[in-house]
Amino acid sequence: MSDVLTLVFRTFMSESCLKKDPGVGLPSPAPCTTLMVGEHRVCRSLLLLAAVSAASEWGVRVVFFAQTQIQSLPVFLQRCSPSLSPESLKKITFSYPRTLEELLQQVASLHESPAPPSLLIVDRMEGFLRGTAGASHGGFQSGEQSRAAHLSALLCDTAAFLTRALERRGSSSAPCRVIASFPSEGDGKDSSPADPILDVLDRYFQVRCTLDPDRSYEAAAAAAQEVWHIYLSGRGLTEASGEDGPPVTQEWKLFAFPDGLMEFKLI
Question: 25 phi and psi, to 5 degrees?
Fold first, then answer.
Protein backbone atom coordinates (compact mmCIF):
# COMPACT_ATOMS: atom_id res chain seq x y z
CA MET A 1 0.00 0.00 0.00
CA SER A 2 1.02 3.65 -0.16
CA ASP A 3 2.90 3.40 3.11
CA VAL A 4 4.34 6.94 3.22
CA LEU A 5 0.92 8.58 2.93
CA THR A 6 -0.54 6.11 5.42
CA LEU A 7 2.26 7.08 7.81
CA VAL A 8 1.22 10.73 7.40
CA PHE A 9 -2.47 10.02 7.94
CA ARG A 10 -1.89 7.88 11.01
CA THR A 11 0.68 10.23 12.52
CA PHE A 12 -1.86 13.05 12.47
CA MET A 13 -4.93 10.91 13.10
CA SER A 14 -7.66 12.33 15.32
CA GLU A 15 -7.69 11.24 18.97
CA SER A 16 -11.07 9.55 18.53
CA CYS A 17 -9.62 7.30 15.80
CA LEU A 18 -6.59 6.47 17.92
CA LYS A 19 -8.86 5.37 20.77
CA LYS A 20 -10.77 3.08 18.41
CA ASP A 21 -7.55 1.61 17.05
CA PRO A 22 -4.84 1.90 19.72
CA GLY A 23 -2.61 -0.51 17.79
CA VAL A 24 -2.05 1.92 14.94
CA GLY A 25 1.62 2.18 14.17
CA LEU A 26 4.04 2.41 11.29
CA PRO A 27 2.85 0.57 8.18
CA SER A 28 5.08 -2.15 6.84
CA PRO A 29 7.17 -0.77 3.96
CA ALA A 30 6.25 -1.91 0.48
CA PRO A 31 7.37 -0.72 -2.95
CA CYS A 32 4.78 1.64 -4.30
CA THR A 33 4.23 4.47 -6.75
CA THR A 34 1.42 6.83 -5.81
CA LEU A 35 -0.29 9.54 -7.86
CA MET A 36 -2.08 12.28 -5.93
CA VAL A 37 -4.95 13.97 -7.79
CA GLY A 38 -6.73 17.05 -6.46
CA GLU A 39 -6.47 20.73 -5.65
CA HIS A 40 -2.88 21.96 -5.92
CA ARG A 41 -2.66 23.73 -2.56
CA VAL A 42 -3.79 20.68 -0.59
CA CYS A 43 -1.72 18.29 -2.69
CA ARG A 44 1.46 20.28 -2.06
CA SER A 45 0.69 20.35 1.67
CA LEU A 46 0.37 16.56 1.74
CA LEU A 47 3.53 16.12 -0.34
CA LEU A 48 5.47 18.28 2.13
CA LEU A 49 3.98 16.31 5.02
CA ALA A 50 5.06 13.08 3.32
CA ALA A 51 8.61 14.38 2.81
CA VAL A 52 8.98 15.63 6.37
CA SER A 53 7.36 12.55 7.92
CA ALA A 54 9.55 10.15 5.93
CA ALA A 55 12.70 12.09 6.82
CA SER A 56 11.89 12.47 10.52
CA GLU A 57 10.05 9.22 11.34
CA TRP A 58 11.97 6.82 9.11
CA GLY A 59 15.20 8.80 8.76
CA VAL A 60 15.25 8.28 4.98
CA ARG A 61 16.59 10.58 2.29
CA VAL A 62 14.02 12.40 0.17
CA VAL A 63 14.31 14.26 -3.15
CA PHE A 64 11.51 16.77 -3.75
CA PHE A 65 11.12 18.08 -7.33
CA ALA A 66 9.08 21.23 -7.98
CA GLN A 67 9.04 24.00 -10.57
CA THR A 68 8.40 26.77 -8.05
CA GLN A 69 10.73 27.30 -5.12
CA ILE A 70 9.55 26.54 -1.60
CA GLN A 71 10.71 29.46 0.51
CA SER A 72 9.77 28.00 3.91
CA LEU A 73 7.75 25.22 5.45
CA PRO A 74 4.08 26.09 5.90
CA VAL A 75 2.81 27.03 9.35
CA PHE A 76 0.82 23.82 9.70
CA LEU A 77 4.00 21.77 9.22
CA GLN A 78 5.83 23.71 11.90
CA ARG A 79 2.93 23.24 14.29
CA CYS A 80 2.22 19.61 13.42
CA SER A 81 5.87 18.63 13.69
CA PRO A 82 7.24 20.42 16.75
CA SER A 83 9.89 17.74 17.21
CA LEU A 84 11.26 18.13 13.69
CA SER A 85 15.02 18.47 13.91
CA PRO A 86 17.41 20.27 11.57
CA GLU A 87 19.06 16.91 10.91
CA SER A 88 15.79 15.56 9.54
CA LEU A 89 15.40 18.53 7.21
CA LYS A 90 18.93 17.92 5.92
CA LYS A 91 17.72 14.58 4.59
CA ILE A 92 15.34 16.39 2.20
CA THR A 93 16.82 17.75 -1.03
CA PHE A 94 14.67 20.30 -2.83
CA SER A 95 15.33 20.50 -6.56
CA TYR A 96 13.75 23.01 -8.95
CA PRO A 97 13.95 21.92 -12.60
CA ARG A 98 12.20 24.42 -14.87
CA THR A 99 11.39 22.12 -17.79
CA LEU A 100 10.58 18.50 -18.43
CA GLU A 101 14.02 18.02 -19.99
CA GLU A 102 15.73 19.30 -16.83
CA LEU A 103 13.55 17.07 -14.66
CA LEU A 104 14.36 14.01 -16.79
CA GLN A 105 18.08 14.77 -16.55
CA GLN A 106 17.97 15.20 -12.78
CA VAL A 107 15.97 12.02 -12.23
CA ALA A 108 18.26 10.06 -14.55
CA SER A 109 21.32 11.26 -12.61
CA LEU A 110 20.03 9.94 -9.27
CA HIS A 111 21.73 6.59 -9.90
CA GLU A 112 25.03 8.41 -9.28
CA SER A 113 23.97 9.54 -5.79
CA PRO A 114 26.51 8.52 -3.13
CA ALA A 115 23.58 8.19 -0.70
CA PRO A 116 20.56 6.88 -2.64
CA PRO A 117 17.21 8.46 -1.68
CA SER A 118 14.31 6.32 -0.53
CA LEU A 119 11.55 8.67 -1.59
CA LEU A 120 11.12 10.66 -4.82
CA ILE A 121 8.42 13.36 -4.89
CA VAL A 122 7.32 15.29 -7.97
CA ASP A 123 5.07 18.27 -7.30
CA ARG A 124 2.61 19.21 -10.09
CA MET A 125 3.53 16.84 -12.90
CA GLU A 126 1.23 18.69 -15.26
CA GLY A 127 3.50 21.75 -15.10
CA PHE A 128 6.32 19.69 -16.61
CA LEU A 129 4.10 17.88 -19.12
CA ARG A 130 2.02 20.81 -20.33
CA GLY A 131 4.85 23.11 -21.34
CA THR A 132 4.46 26.63 -22.71
CA ALA A 133 2.58 25.55 -25.80
CA GLY A 134 0.12 23.39 -23.92
CA ALA A 135 -0.59 26.14 -21.41
CA SER A 136 -1.31 28.68 -24.15
CA HIS A 137 -3.92 26.37 -25.68
CA GLY A 138 -5.53 25.72 -22.30
CA GLY A 139 -5.06 21.95 -22.38
CA PHE A 140 -2.86 18.99 -23.15
CA GLN A 141 -1.76 18.06 -26.67
CA SER A 142 -1.48 14.49 -27.94
CA GLY A 143 2.32 14.52 -27.71
CA GLU A 144 2.12 15.13 -23.99
CA GLN A 145 0.68 11.65 -23.44
CA SER A 146 4.02 10.26 -24.61
CA ARG A 147 5.78 12.76 -22.33
CA ALA A 148 3.71 11.48 -19.42
CA ALA A 149 4.64 7.89 -20.27
CA HIS A 150 8.33 8.81 -20.63
CA LEU A 151 8.50 10.61 -17.28
CA SER A 152 6.49 7.94 -15.45
CA ALA A 153 8.60 5.11 -16.86
CA LEU A 154 11.81 6.90 -15.88
CA LEU A 155 10.55 7.48 -12.33
CA CYS A 156 9.61 3.80 -11.99
CA ASP A 157 12.90 2.57 -13.47
CA THR A 158 14.92 4.94 -11.28
CA ALA A 159 13.05 3.85 -8.16
CA ALA A 160 13.72 0.20 -9.04
CA PHE A 161 17.43 0.94 -9.55
CA LEU A 162 17.68 2.86 -6.27
CA THR A 163 15.86 0.05 -4.47
CA ARG A 164 18.48 -2.45 -5.65
CA ALA A 165 21.27 -0.03 -4.63
CA LEU A 166 19.79 0.35 -1.14
CA GLU A 167 19.38 -3.41 -0.80
CA ARG A 168 23.01 -4.02 -1.82
CA ARG A 169 24.08 -1.66 0.95
CA GLY A 170 21.95 -3.58 3.41
CA SER A 171 19.97 -0.44 4.05
CA SER A 172 16.70 -0.65 5.97
CA SER A 173 15.54 2.34 3.89
CA ALA A 174 14.70 0.13 0.90
CA PRO A 175 12.59 0.19 -1.17
CA CYS A 176 12.59 3.55 -2.94
CA ARG A 177 9.09 4.99 -3.31
CA VAL A 178 7.62 7.58 -5.70
CA ILE A 179 4.83 10.07 -5.00
CA ALA A 180 3.70 12.59 -7.63
CA SER A 181 0.84 15.06 -7.80
CA PHE A 182 -1.34 15.88 -10.76
CA PRO A 183 -3.76 18.67 -9.77
CA SER A 184 -7.18 18.41 -11.34
CA GLU A 185 -9.19 21.34 -12.64
CA GLY A 186 -12.38 20.00 -11.09
CA ASP A 187 -13.13 17.45 -8.40
CA GLY A 188 -10.39 14.84 -8.63
CA LYS A 189 -12.79 11.91 -8.44
CA ASP A 190 -14.93 13.14 -11.34
CA SER A 191 -12.08 14.19 -13.63
CA SER A 192 -10.28 10.86 -13.91
CA PRO A 193 -12.30 9.03 -16.59
CA ALA A 194 -12.08 11.82 -19.19
CA ASP A 195 -8.46 12.88 -18.81
CA PRO A 196 -6.16 11.05 -21.28
CA ILE A 197 -3.06 12.05 -19.30
CA LEU A 198 -4.43 10.50 -16.11
CA ASP A 199 -5.20 7.37 -18.10
CA VAL A 200 -1.53 7.17 -19.09
CA LEU A 201 -0.27 7.90 -15.57
CA ASP A 202 -2.52 5.21 -14.07
CA ARG A 203 -0.68 2.60 -16.13
CA TYR A 204 2.51 3.34 -14.21
CA PHE A 205 1.37 4.46 -10.75
CA GLN A 206 0.13 1.63 -8.56
CA VAL A 207 -2.05 3.73 -6.25
CA ARG A 208 -4.28 6.76 -6.88
CA CYS A 209 -4.80 9.19 -4.00
CA THR A 210 -7.84 11.33 -4.89
CA LEU A 211 -8.78 14.46 -2.95
CA ASP A 212 -12.35 15.79 -3.13
CA PRO A 213 -13.74 18.74 -1.16
CA ASP A 214 -16.40 17.86 1.41
CA ARG A 215 -19.08 20.54 1.47
CA SER A 216 -21.31 18.83 4.02
CA TYR A 217 -22.24 20.13 7.46
CA GLU A 218 -19.34 18.20 9.02
CA ALA A 219 -16.83 21.01 8.44
CA ALA A 220 -18.93 23.48 10.42
CA ALA A 221 -19.71 20.91 13.10
CA ALA A 222 -15.99 20.21 13.58
CA ALA A 223 -15.10 23.93 13.55
CA ALA A 224 -12.83 23.18 10.58
CA GLN A 225 -12.01 25.61 7.83
CA GLU A 226 -12.04 22.87 5.20
CA VAL A 227 -12.79 19.15 5.01
CA TRP A 228 -11.48 16.91 2.25
CA HIS A 229 -12.26 13.32 1.31
CA ILE A 230 -9.12 11.28 0.55
CA TYR A 231 -9.56 8.08 -1.44
CA LEU A 232 -6.73 5.56 -1.82
CA SER A 233 -7.39 3.09 -4.64
CA GLY A 234 -5.61 1.05 -7.27
CA ARG A 235 -3.89 -2.22 -7.94
CA GLY A 236 -1.11 -1.43 -5.47
CA LEU A 237 -3.52 -1.77 -2.56
CA THR A 238 -4.83 -5.08 -3.86
CA GLU A 239 -1.31 -6.43 -4.42
CA ALA A 240 -0.23 -5.35 -0.93
CA SER A 241 -3.22 -7.08 0.70
CA GLY A 242 -2.47 -10.29 -1.19
CA GLU A 243 -6.15 -10.80 -1.90
CA ASP A 244 -7.97 -11.44 -5.15
CA GLY A 245 -11.24 -9.78 -6.04
CA PRO A 246 -12.39 -6.21 -6.63
CA PRO A 247 -9.95 -3.31 -6.16
CA VAL A 248 -9.30 -2.31 -2.56
CA THR A 249 -10.17 1.24 -1.55
CA GLN A 250 -9.36 3.19 1.59
CA GLU A 251 -11.08 6.40 2.58
CA TRP A 252 -9.91 9.12 4.94
CA LYS A 253 -11.03 12.63 5.79
CA LEU A 254 -8.71 15.60 6.17
CA PHE A 255 -9.78 18.42 8.52
CA ALA A 256 -7.93 21.72 8.06
CA PHE A 257 -8.46 24.14 10.95
CA PRO A 258 -8.15 27.95 10.98
CA ASP A 259 -5.12 27.80 13.31
CA GLY A 260 -3.15 25.83 10.72
CA LEU A 261 -3.48 22.39 12.28
CA MET A 262 -4.49 19.35 10.23
CA GLU A 263 -6.18 16.15 11.37
CA PHE A 264 -7.03 12.90 9.60
CA LYS A 265 -9.87 10.49 10.24
CA LEU A 266 -10.18 6.96 8.89
CA ILE A 267 -13.61 6.28 7.36
Answer: -150, -160
